[in-house]
Specification:
The chain folds into two domains: 4-96 and 204-435, Adenylosuccinate Synthetase, subunit A, domain 3 (Adenylosuccinate Synthetase, Chain A, domain 3); 106-201, Orthogonal Bundle (Adenylosuccinate Synthetase, subunit A, domain 2), CATH 1.10.300.10. The protein has helices spanning 17-25, 78-90, 110-122, 135-143, 150-153, 156-178, 187-198, 205-214, 247-251, 285-295, 313-323, 362-366, 393-406, 429-435, and strands spanning 4-9, 30-33, 42-46, 50-54, 67-70, 75-76, 99-102, 106-107, 202-203, 219-222, 262-268, 271-273, 307-309, 311-312, 327-331, 341-350, 353-355, 369-376, 409-414, 422-424. It is of the alpha/beta class. 33% of the residues lie in helices and 20% in strands.
């Protein structure tokens, strides 16, 4: 059976998936993105400190000869995609013939961004923390069946008719709800110019991926955001607008679940969150600043400082359960190199009573009290290590503690942002998935 492995974030996103996908992509023929938009920055650093921040194109494109797919579950801003293609070309990475964009992928236009900003401003103190990239409004259009897709953009007459109707409706809504007149001058002509550049990349992505698997080619499905930002299973309404869990890989690419051969989760050695919403293990300001600075916890796309907290094992157990995670990757282990003691959340209490399940109601989630276990830090450098045998024993103990508590292996460890500052554990399920 051809390898079809899904990789998801096990926290609130920003777990270091970009580096992990880039590392794993060398062992796969195709990397396929299945959700989100250009609000999810994946940072890859390799060689002579070459750095790429990819927001739409799967990280696997950086591997010579590998193919990348943007699936129908994503929302695509044509301007952002072309900018990314041009950025890669300027760096010597030619995506021609290797990048494929689903004909069914929905599109983001400037009016989506304008409405995103207006909607967020209208929330006042209840702001979600959106990146204002138009992601949410584009998904809204998709669900109300008035979105425009890549296939529409390629037919000028169809596109003109549809977008003219949509713009009129959006303007009426924007004026009534926010008192804002949308700026759409020149949008149709510019979009049609972009269509000609994007035409060679359009593909029936589900057919392409299923045929590839029929031919025994391997596929790595790349998630965006993280489990706790999933529209169905996250801390709603402080979530993203798409399915960030493993099930989203099937709906977002058209590859059935019967073809999936494994799921990899990614977690930091601690926890971070961007934007609003509850965060039970959030650190006090002073401790958070130390971790933020050591871990360079600032958004790859927005530059926003991330909120930092202790590792939350209740969250990871939940992520393992709903994603079917068979192997966990732990990133940024080195950030704790100077920590004397490490707190780990092993459970929650709500009004003094232990909680066995993840609360659905955000108000209840916000009132949770974490139960901590204190473990000793290793106070020894691990930054850049590539040999597991050289890890301090207390670091190994920390990883074993995580694995025992979440009920699945830690199959890979990252000790720095560089591509090769990585260890795949011998005998792990993850190693087998890469080898077979």
């Amino acid at each position: 059976m051809a390898r079809a492995i899904i990789l998801v974030g096990a926290q609130w996103g920003d777990e270091g998936k970009g580096k992990v996908v880039d590392y794993l992509a060398n062992s796969f023929d195709i990397t396929a993105r299945f959700a989100g938009g250009h609000n999810a920055g994946h940072t890859v650093i390799y060689g002579d400190h070459k750095k790429f921040v990819l927001q739409l194109i799967p990280c696997g494109i950086l591997r010579e000869g590998k193919h990348a797919v943007i699936g129908s579950g994503t929302v695509v801003d044509p301007t952002a995609l072309l900018s990314e293609i041009d950025m890669l070309a300027a760096a010597g990475v030619d995506v021609t013939g290797r990048l494929h964009v689903s004909a069914r992928a929905h599109l983001i236009f400037p009016y989506h961004r304008q409405m995103d900003k207006a909607s967020e401003a209208a929330r006042g103190d209840g702001k979600i923390g959106t990146t204002a990239r138009g992601i949410g409004p584009a998904y809204e259009d998709k669900m109300t069946r008035q979105g425009l897709r890549m296939c529409d953009l390629m037919d000028a007459d169809v596109f003109r008719a549809k977008i003219t109707r949509v713009i009129a409706e959006k303007n009426a809504i924007s004026r009534a709800a926010y008192g804002v007149e949308l700026e759409t001058t020149g949008l149709i002509e510019e979009s049609l110019r972009q269509a000609e550049r994007l035409r060679p990349f359009m593909k029936d992505a589900s057919t392409y991926l299923n045929r590839a698997l029929d031919e025994n080619r391997s596929v790595l499905f790349e998630g965006a955001q993280g489990t706790m930002l999933d529209i169905d299973h996250g801390t709603y309404p402080f979530v993203t607008s798409s399915s960030a869990t493993s099930g989203g890989a099937c709906t977002g690419t058209g590859v059935p679940p019967t073809r999936v051969t494994g799921v990899i989760g990614v977690t930091k050695a601690y926890t971070t969150r961007v934007g609003g919403g509850p965060f039970p293990t959030e650190m006090p300001d002073i401790e958070a600043k130390e971790v933020r600075d050591r871990g360079n916890e600032y958004g790859a796309v927005t530059g926003r400082p991330r909120r930092c907290g202790w590792l939350d094992l209740m969250m990871l157990r939940y992520a393992v359960m709903i994603n079917g995670i068979g192997s966990m990757v732990v990133t940024k282990l080195d950030v704790f190199d100077t920590q004397k003691e490490i707190q780990v959340c092993v459970g929650y209490k709500y009004k003094g009573t232990s909680v066995k399940e993840m609360p659905a109601q955000v108000e209840k989630f916000a009132a949770l009290e974490p139960e901590y276990k204190t473990v000793p830090g290793w106070q020894s450098p691990t930054f850049g290590l590539r040999d597991e045998s050289k890890l301090p024993q207390l670091a190994k103990d920390y990883l074993k503690f995580i694995s025992d508590e979440i009920g699945t292996e830690v199959g890979m460890i990252s000790t720095g942002p560089e591509r090769d500052a990585t260890m795949v554990r011998a005998g792990s399920r993850l190693e087998k998935w890469l080898r077979d």
